[in-house]
UniProtKB/TrEMBL annotation:
Biological source species: Kribbella yunnanensis
Full protein name: Sugar ABC transporter permease
Primary localization class, coarse: membrane
Keywords: Cell membrane, Membrane, Transmembrane, Transmembrane helix, Transport
Membrane-crossing segments per the record: 12-39, 71-97, 109-129, 153-177, 198-223, 229-249, 261-282
UniProt keyword Transmembrane, yes or no: yes
A Pfam short name: BPD_transp_1
Family: Belongs to the binding-protein-dependent transport system permease family.
Amino acid sequence: MSYWTIRRRDVLTGYVFILPQLAGVALFVLLPVGMAIWYSLNDWNVFTGQQTFVGAANYAALADDPQLPKVLLATTLFSGGVVVLNIALGLLIAVLLNRKFRGVTFFRTLFFSPVVVSVVAWTLVWGFLLQDNGAINGLFGGGPNWLQHGDTAMISVIFTQVVRSVGVNMVLFLAALQGVPGELYEAARIDGASNRSVFSRITLPLISPTILLTVIVTIVGALQSFAQIAVLTAGGPELSTTVLVYYVFQQAFKFNDIGYGSTLALMLLSFVMVLTLLQWQLRRKWVFYEE
């Protein structure tokens, strides 16, 4: 009997096809995470190249860091604002544009176009617009320097992030809405259902898998937002917009504390994993899957 049976050849073919993906995961995910874990256990002087094993000292330093609570608060406010506004506006725009009228293609392109613009270029332009003598204040006849005050700085970075990225969720929601069978809407209207009931009892359940996807992607994207903060506010004023990913950059590359920066990076990774797993577990309660 030949060793290379049809089943074994099929299995080998499958592994050959997924090998590039596995290699990419190992090289660009597992290896960096492993290196971050090792660096977090050491005190690394980047100038001399000397590493000193310190064990859990960097993890213990998390509890003694007076700035970390402010950073976590800023991260929560920024991520929460981006996720809520991005999902709500993306769904609203998709519902409004999920119909046939003159110019619908133009409006779809208009809302999606910021997505393809460079993050740095987009942020630089908004940095000029939001200055005290910028176009925004000129439009309203005066106003604050939006990026120099704590409350308005956070609102500004949330706004610029949402305006740039809402087009992605709009496209995903549009695809989901166009996949809802039209006969379900016709049956609901025949039964006398209101528009609100149709939306809550037919549309939302049928697009709930897409909502789950967009929530996960938007949360991960918000927690990883770096360029917007770095260019617009550099974490200021007074840490009001210093989110965790920017704080990792500061500790590791500005203050050259690679060990503590790696520890913060692992904290960020754990937040992303926990939130993703939590949403994935809760999907059984609110995500509708057709049998």
